[in-house]
């Protein structure tokens, strides 16, 4: 799920923008200063919103361009396989720069809190995850999306990241009631991540997906978790 969209989402893939773009100078997690390029340079690297022994989840920073590009290109065909058709394969520095700028600007209106984040371990860029707020009657639902660089697969990183990010989302956005994910019907790793992170399988949207590189049409599996599922009676 990298290109300039109005609202990003790394869901099973990256999607169409659904949020209002807030000027970076209004975002509360940055202290931007403008340099010669168009990208505002926040100083220093933003603090994590989530810290675990394995990784940190923090806002994107312009200095992530090279390492984020390398993370995608660790195996872009395999990572892109289960992402939206717009996910880069391979990634380019210019495309990643555009994506990062989008991530530094896209917030959930009216809270002006960023919705796309980098997963890092110290200086190492490991992966990415984010929310796409829905609209209209689905206003209280976010879609989640994510990917991990290939050499970090199978270490429990995304299971832990999704579990923590979901809790953070419900705690940070009081109006948020439900988080959902859409998964390609044969993406067993992602299905396992979601199930282990507390999501329920809710059914399949038959033949809803179309990806020429995967041979055409496929079912999309729906997973969801509610605030009550996570916090029980305290929700
Ligand atoms: C899906 C993805 C994010 C998982 O990240 P990860 O950090 O490797 O996930 P974890 O290590 O936390 O857990 C993955 C689980 O799936 C299992 N798994 C991995 N590959 C699998 C496969 N091909 N078939 C079945 N299970 C698989 C792992 O064994 C693990 O389960 P376990 O803990 O019971 O052993 C990663 O594979 C990825 O980036 N894929 C490409 C992009 C993508 O699919 N994004 C999600 C779109 S919905």
TrEMBL record:
**Domain N-acetyltransferase, which positions?**
63-224
| Coiled-coil regions listed in the entry | none
Return the Pfam families for the record: Acetyltransf_3
- Keyword match Acyltransferase: yes
Q: Which SUPFAM superfamilies match?
A: Acyl-CoA N-acyltransferases (Nat)
Q: Which GO MF term does the entry hold, naming one?
A: acyltransferase activity, transferring groups other than amino-acyl groups
What are the protein's UniProt keywords? Acyltransferase, Transferase
Record's family? Answer: Belongs to the acetyltransferase family. RimJ subfamily.
* Name of this protein: Acyl-CoA N-acyltransferase
What broad taxonomic lineage does this protein's source fall under?
Answer: Eukaryota, Fungi, Dikarya, Ascomycota, Pezizomycotina
